[in-house]
C-alpha cells in the first residue's frame, strides 16, 4: 500500500447524495480476478453512454477535472455493496482522498486498506470545500494527514478527525496482515481458551 | 458488572486484543466466501506464502455469477470472465482445503442462505463474508457483517478482523403486524424512517413483539437489510424459535455440546438496563405493505401512496429525488398502483427462502401472470428449490407462468445472464433499487414476495391486501 502524507491536487465536486458502490463501479466490472485496471470504468454508467462515448457534462469528463485526485461528495458516499472494487477503481483513476459529511461503513474501511483517505467533515465545511472544488483545475486543495487539515485554494484551513491507528497505517503504508501476525501468540491463546469455552464453534 | 447489550456481549466474547485507541482485534468464528470478492484475497495469500489459518471455519460457495437456467451445466451459459471467477473459487477451495459447495451440489445456493441452512451460522458467533448482506446471519443473534476483499485476506490469514466498536442502536417494532404485512415491509419501513445513513456507525438490535412473532426466515429478511440502513450489522436475540431452527442441522452441535451451547445461547440477550445510543420505535400496526419508488432503499412508501415530488424533500435529497424520478421514468402524483411493470423477480438473500416462496405461491395459486410478463422465481438454494417442489409450490409458479430457476443471486445484482434491459421495470423481492443494479437502465421497485406475486398477476404495482380479500 502506498503511503499517504500530504496531497495537493484538483478536487472534483460530486454533490449528489447516496452515491453507491454500484455507481462507483458497476457489477459487470467485478468479474475481474485482479485489483488493477478498474480506473477506466470508474463511475462507468454516469461517465459513458451505452455505446461507450463519454458523457461530456459528467464531472470527471470535464477538462478541469480529468486529473482530479480528490472528490468532494454528498452525504453517505459509498453506500451499498462491500465491493472493494470501488476503492480500487477510485485509486486506479488517481483519487487518493474523498471528503463527505458521511460514508458507508464498509466503504470507509476499504479506503484505508488501499491508501485512500476518507475525510468526514460537517455540512458547512463540505459546502465550502464543494464551492472551492467548483472553481476547477486552478483551485488546488491540500490535504495534510499528519496535521489533519484540509486547506482550500484560498487558504482556509479545516481540521478533521482520524483514528490514530488508521492514520499510523496510512502514513507508513503498513500492511494490516503483517501487523496482526505479530500478535499470533495472542490469537493462539484466544483460540485455545475459546475451544474450551465454546467447543461447538 | 455494567449492563450490556447483546452486541457488547458477543464483542467481549471475541476480543483477542485491544489497542490504546480502542481498536479491537476480533476473533472470527465463521468466514463465508463467494467467487466475486475472494480471488484477489487468495492471490494475496499465495504471493505472501500464507495459508488459511482455520480452513474448517471457512465455507465457500459460488453464487453471484452462476446462471440459474436449467442448462447451466453447459459452460456456454456463462461468459468467459464469469467462468474464470467460478473456476478460481473451485481451485482456491481445493488448494486451501476449505469447506465448499460447488455448483453441482444440491446444497449450493446464495451464501447467506446456505450458511444458516447447513447450521454453520449459530447464535453468539462472529460471522463475516466479503458481501454486505452478511447482516442476514444476525437473525440468529450472531454478530455478522460484510467486509472488503483486503479484510477477506486478513481473515483468511489470521482468523481475526481489526475493528472499531460500533455504537448500540435499538429498533423496536411493537405490537402485531396487520394482515398482508411481512418482514420485508418492516425492514423497508425502518429504512424509510431512518434513511440509508440512519444506522451508520451503529449495530442495530431489532426487538419488540412484531420481531419476536416473525419466523427465522422473516428475521433473516429483517437483518439482511440492516446494511441498507447503513448499520454495520443487525441482530435479533436468539430464542426458542432460533434453537428449533438450528437443532439437527448438519453443522449444529449435537449431544452434550448441544446442551452446553444452549446454556450459553440462552444468556445472549441485552440486559434490561443496557445503554442505547439511538432508539427507533415503530408500531407494528402502523406498517403497511410498502414499495420503493426511487433509486435508494430509503425511497419507501405505502402501496396506497403516490409518487412524491422533489420539493417534498430537503437538502441534497431534492436533487437526488429529481434524478431518481427521471431515472425511474415516474411523474410526481402518480398513484403507485398505476405503475405498470413488465418483469417480476422473486428470490435473493433477502427473500429467497422457503417461507418467501410459500407467501408468493399463496397469492399465485390458481392465477396467471399478466400478459407479456416476464416472471421468475429463483430459490435461494438447491435445498429450498427441492423443498418447494416437494410442497407443490414449484407447480403453482409454473402453472402461473413463472420460470422456475436453479439457485443463485441472479437478477438481484445481474452479474449472471438474468438482467433487465434499459427501461424495463421490475417488481423485485431483492434489496437494492440503485441505478443500473438489475441491468443498465433497468428500473427496480422493491417489495415483499406476496406483493411481487400480486404485481405479476395484475401487471402493475398492487396492494396485496385487495388480492387477499378476493382469495377469501
Secondary-structure map:
The complex is a heterodimer of chains A (201) and B (472).
Chain A: E1 6-14, H1 21-24, H2 44-47, E2 70-73, H3 85-93, E3 97-100, H4 105-112, E4 117-120, H5 123-133, E5 140-144, E6 149-151, E7 157-159, H6 164-172, H7 176-181, H8 184-197
Parallel strand pairs in A: 1-2, 2-3, 3-4
Antiparallel strand pairs in A: 1-5, 5-6, 6-7
Chain B: H1 6-12, E1 15-18, E2 24-27, E3 30-33, H2 39-48, E4 58-60, H3 80-96, E5 99-100, H4 111-117, E6 126-129, E7 143-146, H5 149-158, E8 160-163, E9 167-174, H6 183-194, E10 202-207, H7 209-212, H8 216-224, E11 233-235, H9 240-246, H10 255-265, E12 278-283, E13 290-292, E14 300-302, H11 316-328, E15 343-346, H12 348-351, H13 354-364, E16 374-377, H14 382-390, H15 393-400, E17 403-404, E18 425-428, E19 443-446, H16 449-458, H17 464-471
Helix pairs in contact in B: 2-5, 6-8, 13-15, 13-16
Characterise this structure.
The complex is a heterodimer of chains A (201) and B (472). Chain A has helices at residues 21-24, 44-47, 85-93, 105-112, 123-133, 164-172, 176-181, 184-197, and strands spanning 6-14, 70-73, 97-100, 117-120, 140-144, 149-151, 157-159. With 201 residues, chain A is α/β, with parallel strands linked by helices. Chain A has a 7-stranded mixed beta sheet. Chain B has 472 residues and is of the alpha/beta class. Chain B is built from 17 helices and 19 strands. Chain B has helices at residues 6-12, 39-48, 80-96, 111-117, 149-158, 183-194, 209-212, 216-224, 240-246, 255-265, 316-328, 348-351, 354-364, 382-390, 393-400, 449-458, 464-471; strands at residues 15-18, 24-27, 30-33, 58-60, 99-100, 126-129, 143-146, 160-163, 167-174, 202-207, 233-235, 278-283, 290-292, 300-302, 343-346, 374-377, 403-404, 425-428, 443-446. In chain B, the strands form 5 sheets. A 5-stranded parallel beta sheet of chain B has the order 5-4-3-6-7, with helices on both faces. In chain B, α2 (39-48) packs across α5, α13 crosses α15 and α13 (354-364) runs parallel beside α16 (449-458). The longest helix of chain B has 17 residues, at 80-96. The mean pLDDT of chain B is 97. At the A-B interface, α4, α7 and α8 of A face α2, α3, α5, α10 and α11 of B.
Amino acid at each position: 500500500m502506498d503511503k499517504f502524507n500530504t496531497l495537493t491536487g484538483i478536487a472534483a465536486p460530486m454533490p449528489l447524495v447516496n452515491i453507491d458502490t454500484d455507481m462507483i463501479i458497476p457489477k459487470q466490472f467485478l468479474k475481474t480476478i485482479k485489483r488493477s485496471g478498474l480506473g477506466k470504468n470508474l463511475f462507468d454508467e454516469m461517465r459513458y453512454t451505452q455505446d461507450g462515448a463519454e458523457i461530456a457534462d459528467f464531472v470527471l469528463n470535464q477538462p478541469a477535472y480529468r486529473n482530479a485526485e480528490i472528490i468532494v461528495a454528498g452525504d453517505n458516499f459509498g453506500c451499498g455493496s462491500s465491493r472493494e472494487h470501488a476503492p480500487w477503481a477510485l485509486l486506479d483513476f488517481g483519487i487518493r482522498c474523498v471528503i463527505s459529511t458521511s460514508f458507508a461503513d464498509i466503504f470507509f474501511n476499504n479506503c484505508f486498506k488501499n491508501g485512500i483517505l476518507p475525510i468526514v467533515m460537517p455540512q458547512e465545511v463540505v459546502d465550502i470545500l464543494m464551492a472551492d472544488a467548483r472553481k476547477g483545475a486552478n483551485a488546488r486543495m491540500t490535504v495534510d494527514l499528519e496535521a489533519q487539515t484540509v486547506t482550500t485554494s484560498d487558504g482556509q484551513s479545516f481540521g478533521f478527525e482520524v483514528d490514530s491507528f488508521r492514520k499510523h497505517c496510512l502514513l507508513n503504508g503498513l500492511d494490516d496482515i503483517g501487523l496482526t501476525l505479530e500478535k499470533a501468540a495472542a490469537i493462539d491463546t484466544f483460540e485455545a481458551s475459546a475451544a474450551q469455552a465454546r467447543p461447538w464453534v | 458488572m455494567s449492563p450490556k447489550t447483546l452486541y457488547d456481549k458477543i464483542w467481549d466474547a471475541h476480543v483477542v486484543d485491544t489497542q490504546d485507541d480502542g481498536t479491537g482485534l476480533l476473533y472470527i468464528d465463521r468466514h463465508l466466501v463467494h467467487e466475486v470478492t475472494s480471488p484477489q484475497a487468495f492471490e494475496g495469500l499465495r504471493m505472501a506464502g500464507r495459508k488459511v489459518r482455520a480452513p474448517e471455519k471457512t465455507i465457500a460457495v459460488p453464487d453471484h455469477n452462476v446462471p440459474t437456467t436449467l442448462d447451466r451445466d453447459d459452460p456456454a451459459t456463462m461468459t468467459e470472465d464469469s467462468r474464470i471467477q467460478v473456476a478460481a473459487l473451485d481451485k482456491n477451495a481445493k488448494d486451501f482445503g476449505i469447506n465448499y459447495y460447488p455448483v453441482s451440489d444440491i446444497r449450493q445456493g446464495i451464501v447467506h442462505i446456505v450458511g444458516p441452512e447447513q447450521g454453520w451460522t449459530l447464535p453468539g458467533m462472529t460471522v463475516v463474508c466479503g458481501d454486505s448482506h452478511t447482516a442476514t446471519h444476525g437473525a440468529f443473534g450472531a454478530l455478522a457483517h460484510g467486509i472488503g476483499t483486503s479484510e477477506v485476506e486478513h481473515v483468511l490469514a489470521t482468523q481475526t478482523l481489526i475493528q472499531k466498536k460500533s455504537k448500540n442502536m435499538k429498533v423496536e417494532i411493537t405490537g402485531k403486524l396487520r394482515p398482508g404485512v411481512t418482514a420485508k415491509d418492516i425492514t423497508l419501513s425502518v429504512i424509510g424512517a431512518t434513511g440509508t445513513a440512519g444506522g451508520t456507525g451503529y449495530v442495530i438490535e431489532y426487538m419488540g413483539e412484531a420481531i419476536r412473532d416473525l419466523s427465522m426466515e422473516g428475521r433473516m429478511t429483517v437483518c439482511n437489510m440492516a446494511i441498507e440502513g447503513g448499520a454495520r450489522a443487525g441482530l435479533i436475540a436468539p430464542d426458542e424459535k432460533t434453537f428449533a431452527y438450528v437443532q439437527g442441522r448438519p453443522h449444529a452441535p449435537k449431544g452434550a455440546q448441544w446442551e452446553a451451547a444452549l446454556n450459553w445461547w440462552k444468556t445472549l440477550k441485552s440486559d434490561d438496563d443496557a445503554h442505547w445510543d439511538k432508539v427507533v420505535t415503530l408500531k407494528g400496526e402502523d406498517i403497511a405493505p410498502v414499495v420503493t419508488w426511487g433509486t435508494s432503499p430509503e425511497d419507501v412508501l405505502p402501496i396506497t401512496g403516490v409518487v412524491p415530488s422533489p420539493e417534498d424533500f430537503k437538502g441534497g435529497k431534492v436533487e437526488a429525488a429529481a434524478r431518481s424520478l427521471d431515472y425511474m421514468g415516474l411523474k410526481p402524483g402518480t398513484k403507485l398502483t398505476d405503475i405498470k411493470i413488465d418483469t417480476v423477480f422473486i428470490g435473493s438473500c433477502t427473500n429467497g427462502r422457503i417461507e418467501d416462496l410459500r407467501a408468493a405461491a399463496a397469492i399465485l395459486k390458481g392465477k396467471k401472470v399478466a400478459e407479456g410478463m416476464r416472471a421468475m422465481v429463483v430459490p435461494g438454494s438447491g435445498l429450498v428449490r427441492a423443498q418447494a417442489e416437494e410442497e407443490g409450490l414449484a407447480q403453482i409458479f409454473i402453472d402461473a407462468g413463472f420460470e422456475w430457476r436453479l439457485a443463485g443471486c441472479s437478477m438481484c445484482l445481474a452479474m449472471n445472464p438474468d438482467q433487465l434491459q434499459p427501461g424495463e421495470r421490475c417488481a423485485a423481492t431483492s434489496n437494492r433499487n440503485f441505478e443500473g443494479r438489475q441491468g443498465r437502465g433497468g428500473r427496480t421497485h422493491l417489495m415483499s414476495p406476496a406483493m411481487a406475486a400480486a404485481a405479476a398477476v395484475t401487471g402493475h404495482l398492487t396492494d396485496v391486501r385487495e388480492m387477499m380479500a378476493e382469495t377469501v
